[in-house]
Amino acid sequence: MPSFALEQSMPLCYALSAVGGLLEVGSIAVLAVPDAREREGATLPWWLPKVALASNVTMQTLGSLASNLFATWFGPVSVVAPIYFSATLVANMLIFGFILGLEFFDKLMIIGTYVIAIGTILLQIVGPDIQEDQDIGVLLSHPYAYLWFVALLVGMIISTAFMVYRRYEEKLQILILLVARATSYTLNLTVSRAFLLNPTYFVLVTFLVIKIVSGMIYTYAIVVQSTTVTQSKFVPINAVCIMLMNAITGVIVWEDWRVISSWTGYVCVFLLFALGCDLLLTENILTNESSEYGAKKQVDVLIENTPIKRILHPNARQSGSRNLYVEIPNGEAVDIGDSFVTPANYISRRVSIKSADVSGDRRQAWKKILTASKQVCDE
Question: What is the mean pLDDT of residues 264-271?
């Protein structure tokens, strides 16, 4: 299968990676801002959650395409992850900290942001350069490259199986999530670049499946992470692991060792990234990792504002008015003469209510219900 003739461009690779990070922060902002205003007591229009959800999904999709697909077509995959994470963290500080004022950044977090920004600038000087005329078949024909690719694939599958099976104690849970997220993200970037490098039709279809599945696993791992591990422990380690695994993949699979300007500088850049992540991500900031506005929040909003809720929870109470006396909480009311018996917590309560009471004023009716219940308990 012939490859597409796209001219390699490091500036375009950097720009698309950064745009992906900016769009991710924007997608979080469209959910966080209305929620913050509602907590302040502001009345929001009914359509706003739906618009926010649509905006969130659109920006997430565009951001994913920009950084996880298009950026890999114009430069080394090993630089995409650092640029993406750096743009996300810097934009988070600017938008949520300085512009919207929804988040406080202390001195260490601000220094961490500066460290990551400096590392990103240095990466363009000492990191890998463009390689023209690569062929994915030739690259994977090397035993070490093929074995590394298979190891990533096996690691993603096994970690996902453990992740779905059950929850574990925190240290083991963190290890499983680290493997799942780092392998799925690395494979996602690798197969994205391989789409343009002379794959056979079989390889192209296989890589397309890996692209879709790895994206789903990465997103699911974020949802699991947000509810099962301590964010301040996991997030810094995760960011460093993803960037490091992509750098190793760049050396082993993509032969970045041929075009790295300075090995000493390249290693020091990743040390700066590790230091910056440790300083900046010790707080649960508003990125896609956030348990409050991240992937889990997006799933919750999607379920709440679409027919999925009725499918998952067919007996859930719908919004709108209802007759409070048709279904008394904790069980169905059964008419026995001039009384009703309602099972609650496996104990039947005998509540005397006249028919005229039910058709009367709501407040008075509930008052009589509670008074009757108290009399039954006294008896």
Answer: 92
